[in-house]
Amino acid sequence: MLSIGIVDQLRKFWRQFQLELTKCNGANLLTNGQSLRTRKGLLFANAKKQTCPHTMGRVSSIRRQKKTSIKDRLQLWKINRMHKDGTWSSEDAMQRWTQACNLLSEEGLTPEEGNIEANERVFTIVMGPEHTGRVRTQGFGVTPTRYFPQSKSEEGGGSGSNFGQIASLREEFRSFRDN
Predict the structure, then answer these.
(1) Each residue's pLDDT tens digit, 147-156
(2) Which of 5, 23, 61, 149 has the most crowded Cβ, counting Cβ within 10 A?
(3) 68 by DSSP, 3-state: which?
(4) At 82, phi and psi to the nearest 5?
């Protein structure tokens, strides 16, 4: 059972918290030391810094991928960077697409041929490595381990393959020790 002194302290703390909350009145609640208005301004400024903005509006990349039945990320990236009138969203987007087409043409391919492996390889070269925790063109919540499960297990980077390596090293060690 709580002592009366602790209960009084909790009540006092709760009243103080409620007063502070009503002072804010919901307009300037702080998040990491910034007001919501300041945070919104920073997000807007960061959005303006994008060199290859998408043109999807409210349509998610995944919904557009299902609608067009496109399987590779290079084609989906192109569709997401083109305006309805066929113009590019930015000069940088056009340059990246040209670079991707040039890399594929060196192998005698075009992006539209549907060679998913070649398009994926070129996409990685042109766009650079994926950032941790997300996969370009795949929307919210898709992680590299979900999207690329085979690459982790083939390279030995996944946690499941580490157990196999440990077991084989133990066996190797035992065989050396026994001989």
Answers:
(1) 776 654 444 4
(2) 61
(3) helix
(4) -105, 140
